Amino acid sequence: MALYKYGNNLDQSTHTNFDTERAPGFISPDSGIYRCVHCGDEIAANKGNPLPPQNHHQHSSGQPIRWKLLVCTVQKA
User: Does some domain include residue 11?
Assistant: First the structure.
């Protein structure tokens, strides 16, 4: 589970990008922290780069790897 110290540095969002499960190798639509919905493993990914491949880690239960956006970074223009 992602941790934080200062909650005032985070804003809540209801954007649908937080609800979408993405397969290994999918091109990340947002920079941020992604979490595997089955095992809770977390990774950092940059916008435009692929999410980790299937062989990044395996589930002993045979469940597929599915990444979900947990925390999105916002770059000021």
Answer: no
Does residue 72 contact residue 17 with C-beta atoms inside 8 Å?
Answer: yes
pLDDT by residue for the chain (77 residues), tens only, comes to 889 999 999 999 999 999 999 999 999 999 999 999 999 999 999 999 999 987 777 778 888 999 999 999 988 87
Domain assignment present for 6? no
Question: Does 38 map to a domain?
Answer: yes
Backbone φ and ψ of 64, nearest 5°: -70, 155
Contact call for residues 70 and 2 (beta carbons, < 8 A):
yes
Q: Is this structure's pTM higher than 0.85?
A: yes
Residue ranges making up the domain that contains 46 = 17-72
